[in-house]
Write a structure and sequence with these properties.
alpha/beta; 6-stranded mixed β-sheet; 11 helices; 12 strands; 30% helix; binds fe (ii) ion
Length: 374
């Protein structure tokens, strides 16, 4: 006779098999692993009804311009370690992949916002690449400082190609930048590659230089955008925000104003960034800025310099490691402005709408937090 197994035992066994599968993760066994992950989530009653709400785009607008409304999804800042060091962040990335694969209809593409790895190590980046291969929609990658400073991007480039590139999609011009270029602080100090990496990974150590886009990429950007008229819809991706928020934590791009000058030629333009791991909204002139959520952890809000349009997300529950984390979608309107959707894993989705940005926060404000920040 079959031995009776309690729900708890089954859950523990499923968890166990998930973790042992991670040790041998390849494309073939991925579906098994994600099925086990979902099984564990469901058995534990952790599944949230909030994640997969269908998104309405104003189709009326689609008929007026030549561009069409569409959506893309984003995943960012997974910070994965090698799986035998820490599997929590690996599981979170698996969860994000499941989330995005469950969207119906599927997004046109998935944008990855940088910091895939924690310490830029080959095995971290390879594992991340392997997991992201299981997304159904095509993936576009951006680099973060955690991916780069062990080998100065060698492995990342082998896996994902150039960090700076642009493309056109349904009437929108997209640009991806590497905004985490630092001045050489390591050679004079005789640092090893890992010492350099760990210095960059510690945001508030005062040793590293601030992030920049740098003159080389600014020139490239100028040339790339030169062929477009001022009413061209443009969306730019950067890892760090392309404005100066809080220098002590490197929530900052040092040549932001110079980059903004290049972008400000356009009637309206959207910048979507990673790195800050939180709901973050800003507008400088005609440039609209939106932060992406992290799958690994939410940063606290900076103690000063917060942009006026940011309505902070509710303070994360310190006892729930997934709270304040998530992924999301971007609904792109024909004029290139966006509804930015934050799919927080334990909460209702929050949308920072195009109308909110256009009216400088007077209309359509996202919900205000009822718990103050730490
Ligand atoms: Fe990050
Ligand atoms: Fe980062």
């Amino acid at each position: 006779m079959k031995k009776f197994k309690s729900v708890e035992t089954k859950y523990m066994e499923e968890r166990q098999s998930l973790f042992s599968s991670l040790k041998n993760l390849d494309r073939r066994c991925f579906m098994k692993v994600t099925a086990a992950a979902m099984g564990a989530v469901l058995a534990k009653g952790l599944s949230t009804p909030f994640s997969f709400l269908p998104l309405k785009i104003d189709q009326a607008e689609a008929s007026t311009g030549k561009a069409k409304s569409f959506r893309f999804a984003y995943i960012s800042d997974s910070h994965i370690y090698e799986k035998d060091v820490n599997d929590r962040f690996v599981r979170s990335l698996l969860r994000a992949v499941d989330d995005v694969n469950s969207l119906d209809p599927q997004p046109d593409f998935v944008f990855y916002g940088g910091d895939l790895a924690q310490l830029g190590q080959e095995k971290e980046l390879e594992l991340g690449a392997q997991i992201l291969k299981n997304l159904k929609a095509p993936v576009r990658m951006m680099v973060g400082e955690h991916d780069w400073y062990l080998d100065m991007g060698e492995k990342w480039r082998t896996l994902f190609g150039k960090p700076t590139y642009s493309w056109d999609h349904k009437g929108i011009h997209f640009v991806t930048l590497n905004s985490v270029v630092e001045r050489d602080f390591w050679t004079k100090r005789g640092m090893t590659p890992m010492e350099r990496m760990k210095t960059v990974a510690g945001l508030d150590n005062g040793v590293q230089s601030p992030f920049t886009v740098g003159s080389e990429q600014r020139e490239w950007l100028q040339k790339d955008l030169a062929k477009y008229p001022v009413d061209q819809p443009v969306i730019v991706f950067s890892h760090s925000p392309l404005y100066k928020l809080y220098k002590n934590w490197n929530f900052w791009t040092d040549d932001a104003q110079e980059v903004q000058k290049i972008l400000s030629r356009f009637k309206q333009l959207v910048v979507i960034h990673g790195h800050t791991h939180q709901l973050l909204t800003n507008r400088i002139g005609n440039i609209h800025f939106h932060g992406m959520l992290s799958t690994a952890w939410p940063w606290p809000y900076a103690p000063q310099g917060m942009p006026q349009l940011t309505i902070q997300m509710n303070r994360p529950d310190p006892f729930n490691p997934n709270d304040g984390c998530g992924d999301g979608e971007v609904a792109v309107h024909p004029d290139g402005l966006v509804d930015k959707i934050y799919s927080l894993w334990n909460r209702n989705q929050i949308t920072v709408s195009r109308a909110y940005m256009v009216d400088w926060g007077k209309k359509n404000a996202p919900p205000r937090p009822n718990l103050s920040s730490y």
